[in-house]
Amino acid sequence: MCGITGWVDWENDVSQRPEVLQAMVKTLALRGPDDSGTYFSRQAALGHRRLSVVDLEGGRQPMVRHRGDSSYAITYNGELYNTSDLRGELMSHGHMFTSNSDTEVLLKAYIEWGPQCLERLNGIFAFAVWDEKKQTLFMARDRLGVKPLFYARRGSSFIFGSELKAVLCHPAVEPEVTIEGLAEIFMIGPARTPGHGVFRDVAELRPGYCLKFDRNGLVCHQYWSLKSHPHEQDFLTTTSMVGDIFRDAVRRQLISDVPLCTLLSGGLDSSAITAIAATAYEQEGRGRLDTYSVEYVDNDKYFQEHSFQPNRDAPWVERVAGYFDTCHHEILLDTPELAGVLENAARARDLPGMADVDTSLYLFSREIKKGATVGISGECADEVFGGYPWFYREEMVKADSFPWSPRPEDRLEWLCPELRDNHDLRDYPRWRYREALAEVPRLEGEDAEATRMREISYLSLTRWMPTLLDRKDRMSMAWGLELRVPFCDHRLVDYVWNVPWAMKNYLNREKGLLRHALTGTLPEDVQWRRKSPYPKTHNPSFLLAVQTKLLAALDDPSSPLLPLIDTAKIRQFAESDAAKSPFPWFGQLMGGPQLLAYLVQVNAWLQQNKVRIVL
Question: Which of 2, 169, 261, 488 is catalytic?
Answer without folding.
Answer: 2
